[in-house]
């Protein structure tokens, strides 16, 4: 649950998009250099974050409740295939359950693939100081688009392997939860560093909440290894 809620790609995607929009506007400057426009931009970013996280958690709640009211209520507690997951829609859609589930999977893929592959491309490209940005043409950022293509192809190849997709989703969330801890630590240190943030270092309230979330994630990781070992 922690790994799907606080996933590492979230730390790269939104920040990279903000930088991309900044670079695309010749008249725009970084907030550190133009603090006068900070209030408006930070309000927009805050609203964007609240709305996005609100909808994501609402959707997660709906998934949990619908599976509990259908699959779990009928004794189905071990879902190993997409076909079993689609059965959760049968009380609502009847024989069209699999069509409805397929449309949902395709829609999710169309939404998730650009974000997941894109965030990986941003992270790797920025690490090696390659040109990055979806506003750039293919030849202007070959490495960046190459990473997106490679990540997408790896996802396609996985479809033709015997790997259980449900277990793959579960373990990818576990890995995300583990990796998120050091990233959160670095993020909190940067957010409190005036050399990086200028006048926009994190407030005391957000600093306390941020470190609380970080140590909660770290405690969950340690508990997982202790319980499993």
Keywords:
single chain; about 230 residues; mainly alpha
Structure characterization notes:
The radius of gyration is 20 Å and the shape is globular. The mean pLDDT is 85. The protein has helices at residues 2-5, 8-24, 38-70, 82-86, 90-93, 97-127, 142-158, 165-191, 194-197, 204-228. The chain has a domain at 94-161. It has ten helices and no strands. The relative contact order is 0.11. It has 229 residues and is mostly helical.
SSE succession: HHHHHHHHHH
Count of DSSP H/I helices: 10
* Spatial shape: globular
Relative helix content: over 70%
Strand content: under 5%
In total, the number of strands is 0
Oligomerization state:
single chain
Task: Return the average pLDDT rounded to an integer.
Answer: 85
Low-pLDDT runs of 5+ residues are none
Distance from first to last alpha carbon: 20 Å
Radius of gyration: 20 Å
Largest sheet: number of strands, sense, barrel closure: none
Output the structural class.
mainly alpha
């Amino acid at each position: 649950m922690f790994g799907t809620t606080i996933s590492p790609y979230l730390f790269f995607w939104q920040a990279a998009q903000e930088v991309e929009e900044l670079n695309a506007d010749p008249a725009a400057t970084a907030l550190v250099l133009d603090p006068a426009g900070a209030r408006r931009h930070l309000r927009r970013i805050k609203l964007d974050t609240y709305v996005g996280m609100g909808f994501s958690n609402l959707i997660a709640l709906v998934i949990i409740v619908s599976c509990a009211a259908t699959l779990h209520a009928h004794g189905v507690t071990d879902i190993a295939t997409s076909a079993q997951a689609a059965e959760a829609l049968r009380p609502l859609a009847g024989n069209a359950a699999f069509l409805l589930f397929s449309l949902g999977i395709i829609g999710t893929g169309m939404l998730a693939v650009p974000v997941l592959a894109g965030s990986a491309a941003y992270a790797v490209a920025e690490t090696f100081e390659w040109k990055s940005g979806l506003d750039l043409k293919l030849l202007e950022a070959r490495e960046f688009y190459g990473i997106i293509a490679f990540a997408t192809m790896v996802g396609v190849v996985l479809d033709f392997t015997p790997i259980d997709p449900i277990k793959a989703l579960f373990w990818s969330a576990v890995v995300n939860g583990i990796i998120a801890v050091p990233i959160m630590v670095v993020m909190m240190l940067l957010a409190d560093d005036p050399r990086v943030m200028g006048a926009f270092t994190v407030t005391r309230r957000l600093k306390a909440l941020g470190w609380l979330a970080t140590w909660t994630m770290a405690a969950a990781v340690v508990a997982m290894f202790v319980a499993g070992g």
